[in-house]
UniProtKB/TrEMBL annotation:
Residues of the RapZ-like N-terminal domain: 10-166
Organism the protein comes from: Planococcus koreensis
Stated name of the protein: UPF0042 nucleotide-binding protein
SUPFAM superfamilies: P-loop containing nucleoside triphosphate hydrolases
HAMAP family: RapZ_like (MF_00636)
Upper classification of the organism: Bacteria, Bacillati, Bacillota, Bacilli, Bacillales
Keywords, comma-separated and alphabetical: ATP-binding, GTP-binding, Nucleotide-binding
Superkingdom, taxonomy of origin: Bacteria
Length: 294
């Protein structure tokens, strides 16, 4: 895991062989909280970094894919890196992705794409030209990954290990409540319908309150049905969430729904927000708790 100076603008240049995994890499850096840009012309690199450096703390970590798609612009990349190294408070790291020729040829055949250096020609010829062109950059790389036997998930895990910081948003569990009568959340990974639980809506003194209020949460949690549900869901989450995390997922959205999104769903979302926060970065939101009931 890297140690980073918060006063510096950290630039990761992702380059390497076409077909070696640069798309997965840039997505991984985005999940780590980097500002990412794909196929940036080297001539614009210094100007771009100066703009990012002056844009606030949210732009302090930048990852850019720079490869042969830039055409003639790519030839100036080494010069652009040399100029950046002269800049104060800019840290430049090159990540070079490689794979053996057989693997690259196989990946191109699977994708049915032509190599950028041999459009319409033999893929292997383009790969050999590309190796020659990238030799200088490869020698400057601090990190070199050979992805020949890596699955996308394994490449992402390697990047997470090498570039994550204590503040990186590596994996987040978002727990939300909602009301079915206001529509299903479209971004939820797991949805649990808790409308079968006893409803505080029909209790006069609880009706105007929500699951954020102790009398309502106490009411919802007191029932055997609720405790049985909690026991089963806790067991399920203990199994499933680590699987989502190990698969390389950046976030998981767990949604609890009741009729109006005021009482039962809010109570369960609050309960699991606190429980899951013991092991994961957790964010709790209540989509419809402020929506007045008709």
């Amino acid at each position: 895991m890297e140690n980073h100076n918060t006063d510096e603008t950290e630039l990761i240049i992702i380059t390497g062989m076409s077909g070696a995994g640069k798309t997965v890499a840039i997505q991984s850096f985005e999940d780590l909280g980097f500002f990412t840009i794909d196929n940036l012309p080297p001539a614009l690199l210094l100007t771009f970094i100066k703009l990012m450096r002056d844009s606030g703390k949210s732009m302090k970590r930048v990852a850019a894919v720079m490869d042969l798609r830039g055409g003639d612009f790519f030839d100036s990349l080494v010069d652009a890196i040399d100029n950046l190294l002269k800049e104060p408070k800019v840290s430049v790291t090159i990540l070079f992705l490689d794979a053996d020729n057989q693997t690259l040829v196989s990946r191109y055949k699977e994708s049915r794409r032509s190599h950028p250096l041999s459009p319409g020609g033999l893929v292997l010829g383009g790969i050999k030209k590309e190796r020659d062109m990238l030799m200088d950059l490869q020698g400057r790389a601090k990190y070199m990954y050979n992805t020949s036997t890596m699955k996308p998930r394994e490449l992402k895990e390697r990047i997470m290990t090498d570039f994550a910081t204590e503040t990186s948003n590596v994996f987040t569990v978002n727990v939300m409540s909602f009301g079915f009568k206001h529509g299903m959340p479209i971004d939820a990974d797991l949805v649990f319908d808790v409308r079968f639980l006893p409803n505080p809506y029909y209790i006069e003194e609880l009706n105007p309150l929500s699951g954020l209020d102790k009398p309502v949460s106490d009411y919802v949690l007191q029932w055997n049905e609720t405790q049985t549900l909690i026991a089963k869901l806790t067991d399920l989450f203990e199994f499933m969430i680590p699987q989502y995390k190990s698969e390389g997922k950046a976030q998981l959205v767990i949604a609890f729904g009741c009729t109006g999104g005021q009482h039962r769903s809010v109570t369960l979302a609050e309960y699991y927000g606190k429980l899951l926060a013991e092991n994961y970065k957790t964010i709790v939101t209540h989509r419809d708790v402020k929506t007045r009931k008709g």
